[in-house]
Design a protein that fits this description.
The structure is a single chain. This protein is an alpha+beta fold and 249 residues long. The chain folds into two domains: 21-160, Jelly Rolls (Sandwich); 163-247, Winged helix-like DNA-binding domain superfamily/Winged helix DNA-binding domain (Arc Repressor Mutant, subunit A). The protein has ten helices and eleven strands.
């Protein structure tokens, strides 16, 4: 079964652009090193599509019809009832969104929403599962991908359960900066309200934490973040960890 390329506008005023599926899959690190013959098999059964900001890719409780390889944009994974939603994680370009439901034939445990405009490769779940069971190279790549996701999940759970709001926020900012020294500037994957939900705090608590971090050189304007010195933030995080150790917290 072959799914046609769907071309759409990224934003108002931009020209329609198409990317071939081989090039798109080369932007997914966990798939880019697969043998060319296997890439060709994935390309043959897949489609590529642009999805608008705010769209829902799938809902909690639904079964997987596709595996989504995220080429451009950011996706939030949302759980919980309306008005009590928690953002379990953000998925950024270059990753694959929730492989286990497709492999296991089980329903999704979260809802996926487009935080920005997206470009995704859609691989039919049944075909993907069959290849994962019969193609050793893909099985190895998925083992590595899922092991990395598991480590990130455990890290997030540990931080959420054992760290105060300021320390959780600092670690998120350090991770988002992507550098270990000097100044940094980046854009949050969603709104500040989304960030608060992800870090397990209220928007008001997040606002107070950001104000307390201002003397450490953290400045925000909407979703834009500017950090004067990453090393200073890291030192603060380490001092907080040492204080918790001394107090037994």
């Amino acid at each position: 079964m072959s799914v046609p390329i769907i071309v759409a506008r990224i934003s108002q005023g931009s020209r329609p652009m198409a990317m071939d599926k081989t090039t798109a899959l080369s932007r997914i690190p966990s798939l880019s090193e697969l043998p060319r013959t296997l890439i060709d098999k994935l390309v043959e059964v897949s489609g590529i599509q642009r999805i608008g900001k705010g769209s829902t890719l799938f809902r909690e409780g639904e079964h997987a019809h596709f595996v989504y390889a995220l080429i451009e944009g950011s996706v939030s994974l949302v759980s919980g009832p309306r008005r009590e939603e928690t953002i379990a994680d953000f998925i950024d370009a270059g990753d694959i969104i929730l492989v286990p439901p497709a492999l296991l034939g089980l329903p999704y445990m979260v809802t996926a929403k487009a935080v920005t405009d997206l470009l995704v490769v859609l691989i039919p779940a049944e075909e993907f599962r069959r290849m994962a069971e019969t193609e050793l190279a893909l099985a190895v790549a998925l083992n590595r991908l899922l092991a990395g996701h598991w480590r990130l999940l455990l890290r997030h759970l540990t931080q959420t359960k054992s760290r105060d709001a300021d320390t959780r926020l600092v670690q998120f900012l350090i991770d988002g900066a992507g550098v270990t020294r000097g100044a940094a500037r980046f854009t949050l994957p969603g709104s500040k309200q989304d960030l608060a939900a992800h870090l397990g705090m209220t928007p008001a608590t997040l606002s107070r934490s950001l104000k307390r971090l201002s003397p450490l050189g953290v400045k925000t304007a909407g979703s834009d973040v500017q950090i004067e010195n990453i090393a200073r933030l890291s030192a603060f995080s380490h001092s907080q960890a040492a204080a918790r150790t001394q107090t037994g917290a």
